[in-house]
Amino acid sequence: MTDYISTLNEPQRQAVLHGDGPLMIIAGAGSGKTRVLTFRIAHLIESGIDPFRILALTFTNKASGEMRHRIESVVGSEARNIWMGTFHSVFAKILRIEARAIGYTSNFSIYDTDDSKSLLKSIIREFGIDDKVYRPNVVFSRISGAKNRLVGPDDYLNNPLIQADDAAARMPEIGRIYKAYSLRCFQANAMDFDDLLFNTNVLFRDHLDILNKYQHKFRHVLVDEFQDTNVSQYLITRKLSAVHQNICVVGDDAQSIYAFRGANIENILNFEKDFPDVQTIKLEQNYRSTKTIVHAANSVIARNRAQLRKSVFTDNEEGPLIDVIKAASDNEEGRLVATSIFEAKMQESLHNNDFAILYRTNAQSRAFEEALRKLSIKYRIVGGLSFYQRKEIKDLLAYLRFTVNQSDEEAFKRIINLPKRGIGDTTVAKIAVVAAENQVSVWEVVSNINQYVAGRAGIAIEGFGTLIKSFQLMLEKKDAYEVAAHIAKASGILKELYEDKTVEGLSRYENVQELLNAIKEFVDNPENDDKSLSAFLQAVSLLTSADEKDDDGDNDKVTLMTIHGAKGLEFRNVYIVGLEEDLFPSQLMLESRADLEEERRLFYVAITRSEKRLTLSYAESRYHYGRLKVCEPSRFLMEIDQAYLKMARLRPSEVERDTPSGGSMSFVRSLAQKTARTQAPQPTVAHVPSADFAPSDTSTLTEGMRVEHMKFGFGTVKKVDQNGNDRKAVIQFESAGEKTLLLSFAKLKIVG
Questions:
Q1: Which helix or strand (DSSP H or E) is residue 236 part of?
Q2: At residue 222, what are phi and psi to the nearest 5 degrees?
């Protein structure tokens, strides 16, 4: 057996050497799941499985690229023959091969979110309905959710429950918009991201010969991050593995955090029901984090009911206790975190890229950006404006897209008057309406423009058509870079940007040159067999934010990002900030136990990103919609076994000082006074609100009244104070002790 087998622990070895039949690998955080998946594929190839018959599905291009290179280091160039990539890229490849079976051509465009919303905005305007009610963001989200549940436009319109839901939301026209949107995408020979999965399901449902072809083609199907799959993705993989039953899924239910994108945790929780012969192997040894961090994470996730039980452990060092920073405000929180990073860098000779600040929402970054700038600490924000979302980049890409696919209506609308040709919005809208009414592409209208538009605008559009035809002639003879460089020049885009001598203009010109560099890099890459413009456009359209590089090439920066964006990453030192009720957990995720458990999994993911040192922080107040809000420490802080926590930067006088945040006092005091590790007391059983619980009007609340709080349970009002416009109540709860609550925020039911 090759050397790599000897580097594995026993459960890892079992997973790699497993033969035929379904296999589920439950991989705890930092347990080496990528290593196991990589070596399993290498072992299959070494055992005689043709790599052309292996399908490996991931969630990012970065993950699939790293896996392919690792496999190549073991088995050589044969690794390039594996069908490996993201769900969207692999199914896009299948759809291009089989496009004609569902009425598309192989050069279909892939619409990004901006394209989809632009098309929806046009349809809403054409229907003459209120775009303030039917906001493109909301409509797109509802259509996306339907597609992820495999609900097509006709099923959507004929489903009384969906129609009732739309009517209740005062948007009864969404079904009609969905149908028009689907038809316009089809006429434009375009698919959005959700269509890549939806149409693959349609393809396999309606064409059993094609399904049978791929079922026999793929002898082994492997799925990474299985807990993040949605209904559509799971159905496809289950169908593809139905003949050979060699499906291997790798994931961790404790890291399922993408329900808002349609991810269905039931896929992994119920996998054993769908495949009763499955062998389940648990990878429970964490190689990433200290014992303190692993134990703290375990104490949090143990509270979730819906999970596959496992005992994650580590042989790593004990590590320091987890710091908890209490700040008076969100601005002070930013200052304290930045100062902590600065001091750690000085004392331990660390680099900026050893640190990450993780938050629940992007809006929280401001205070940390300002504080880091004041200390001259370089940082980067992950999840900001993508390189490929910049206007000048999207402009040139639209030219490239329309050259490849003349049915692409959104690309057409973007470039028809770029650079300016004297073609107004009214003329462009007329072309789109004529195309839609006659169920033809915009190119059909452009090619016969004299029938519809006269005068200077008609002459300009005819010239535009001639220009596109000249670009088309290059497609079969030239590679992607040669075609793109010619289009950038001949279209006038480069000239217009070059003549803009402002700082912004220079930057936009350089960005377009960088895009051309990226296309040249694509063409020169020996791993890309297809060097056509169409192949490059597909590669770009399927990029994720995790695949993009830092703008200036300087990687020594503190990373600021949402916890969702941090999934799969690891950092030496991690700061989880904004740990306050209604922020984390989000107030939007407190409607059900399932929502709360997803938030707790998100916190678990955040904790387990850290290798050596973890710091948690919260603010006692922060501005919310222009009003100063008094904050309460997150319940997640209370849920960590307090033996692993210590209070940082807390002055002795603060310990005894009254705090307006109500529930924070006992928690702060217990941490501040703790000098050694002690076993935390057993957690209090969470209060279950009464079935008829509904917040009362507290304007008449007085001393002696009995109340119920959703979290703290039943209690008696001891005192009510007026402080300016705010009223506070001191309440003695039966289980939670004494709390001071701000009545404008507290949700209390008066019971007596």
A1: helix 231-240
A2: -120, 135
Proportion of the chain in helix, strand, coil states, percent, rounded to 5: 50, 15, 35
Catalytic residue chosen out of the listed positions 166, 225, 228, 392: 225
Question: In this predicted model, what pLDDT tens digit does every residue of 277-292 receive, in sequence order?
Answer: 999 999 999 999 999 9
Does residue 34 have an active-site annotation?
Answer: yes
Which of 38, 187, 227, 255 is catalytic? The answer is 255
Is 642 an annotated catalytic residue? no
pTM to 2 decimal places: 0.75
Please report which confidence band the pLDDT of residue 745 belongs to, taking 50, 70 and 90 as the band edges: low
pLDDT of residue 390: 84
Active site residue 255: yes
DSSP string of 575-635? EE---BTBBTTBGGG-SSHHHHHHHHHHHHHHHTTEEEEEEEEEESEEEETTEEEE--B-H
Q: Who's near 157: CB < 8 A, 6+ residues apart?
A: 163, 175, 176, 178, 179
- pLDDT value of residue 507: 79
347 catalytic, yes or no?
A: no
Q: What is the pLDDT of residues 146-159, one digit of tens each?
A: 998 999 999 999 99
Given 34, 163, 279, 544, the catalytic residue: 34
Pick the catalytic residue: 40, 609, 612, 635? 609
Q: What is the pLDDT of residue 668?
A: 54
* C-alpha dihedral (233, 236, 239, 244), degrees to nearest 10: -80
Packed helices 174-187 and 425-437: angle between N→C axes, nearest 10 degrees = 90
Q: Which of 33, 142, 335, 601 is catalytic?
A: 33
